[in-house]
What we know:
The protein is an all-alpha fold. Helices cover 36% and strands 0% of the residues. The chain has helices at 2-15, 24-27, 59-66, 79-83. The mean pLDDT is 79.
Amino acid sequence: MMKLISLAALGLGLAACVPTQHPSYLVSAANPAVGTRPPTYSSVTAGIRGYDVVDPLDWRELNRRVGPQGDPERGDSDDAARRGR
Length: 85
């Protein structure tokens, strides 16, 4: 019985948080005086990039390209890593 009362109290508490009026963005959709943009044509393939087949590259060099770059003034070059040390 106690579970039923606590569940009913929780339901009433949540019901008190529900707004009494409909949100304006839902009501304005039915208003014919609200202006809208005219429909325009857009291609289905707009913004599509073509990806061609390429030969595989050395994964070490690809990792160096996308990895953090060292500061040449501080001597952070990765020459030792290129030599395999």
